[in-house]
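Project channel, design review

CF: Before we commit to the Lodderomyces beijingensis constructs, I'd like one complete example in the thread so the newer folks can see what an input/output pair looks like. Taking NADH:flavin oxidoreductase/NADH oxidase N-terminal domain-containing protein.
RD: sounds good, go ahead.
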Amino acid sequence: MGKEMQESNLFKPITIGEVTLSHRVVHAPTSRSRSTGDGSHIPTDLMLQYYDSRSKHAGTLIIFESCLVSPDGGLVPYKSGVWNQEQCRALKVITDQIHANGSFVSCQIFAPGRVANIKEMKEKGLLYSAPSVIFHAQSHKVESEKLQYPLCELSIDQIARIEDDFVQAAANCLDLAGFDFIELHGSSGFLIEQFLSPISNTRNDQYGGSLENRCRFLFEIIDKLIRKLGSLSKVGIRLSAWSEHFGMIYPKGVYDVHPPLLFCQYVLDHLEKLKRQGYEIGYVSLTEPRVSGNNDQDPKDNSNQSLVDRWSGKLIRAGGYASNYKSNTATATANANTCLQQDVNADDRTLIAFSRPFTSNPDLITRLKNDLKLDNYQREFFYSHSLQGYLTFGDYVDDTEGSNSLPYSEDELQREGTPLV
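CF: and here is what came back for NADH:flavin oxidoreductase/NADH oxidase N-terminal domain-containing protein:
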């Protein structure tokens, strides 16, 4: 990568809201299922160590993994929650450490809706609900029938309560848990995108049908955040026009224009209008067409350019910017290198987020800047629950195979985290 990248915008400071970052490498939200699995949804000591090691380079923006806004919005085992004080106290241990390292942190908040864990919802007597009664996968439908716990369409009152849950979760993140920003998770097939998409939202009331109606849930959350917080400077949003995660697969030949591209354009037009009215959102995060979920995909002729052109504020671009790095190779392929440089240098408002490379390279920023080998991530441990494959990567030593791995005993490798309270 060399001197050309070192002198690019990637390593220049930038301000988001009231925060000034020392560079433009962002830790993307990377869910790893290391919270407690006992139903309390509390972050653990493993997570503290992970985020401590990834925030050592002062002035970094860490986007914390997705956290559940409330039980009513849906639950997923091993995910942290932000609806009670115990969870927030534990999260603050992590944010305090990130701040002690001189870095900053945003919390991605979400509700799973139809992709919630049906067993946990039934055990806790919670409504398993979504915008419409449409399962994202046949396996979920089979489980729902087996457990005799049906998927239900959200009522108008229930929609309003979950909107309020998002707003309270945001306030909890900022006021109790010590986050600098919150990020609304509007992609990956979760509840916000379930409302946005015509394949998961077939309602015939004010929350379904037209593009305007399908965006209403998100826009009402944003309006409530303005009333609660007074501004949107500490708010971000993640959108994707190309992800097929959790059943967001559109049949070919049915639509003149790819529906997620249309609703992302509509959302960004709305955010641009709010910006002109004095309510500028802190940042917009866009997932590139090179990735879907945690997998690479062929971008074909897909492009985010129509989205980039619609938004004039701070922009985080994520997905595939280091996917072509190979073990024991000091440089990226020409394609990945070119995309990274072109996008970060295209203007003075763009940041670049990395997800999978951060999982196996805690000192990723130093490695990028100094053109050092990146260690390969270990996909088989992405969503396991122990220390193995999560904390076993160390800072750069040299290019020798395994030289950057941290030594742990077999018992330590199998250890799950303990709650931070």
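RD: helpful, thanks. The domain at 2-413 is CATH 3.20.20.70 (TIM Barrel).
CF: The longest helix spans residues 156-175.
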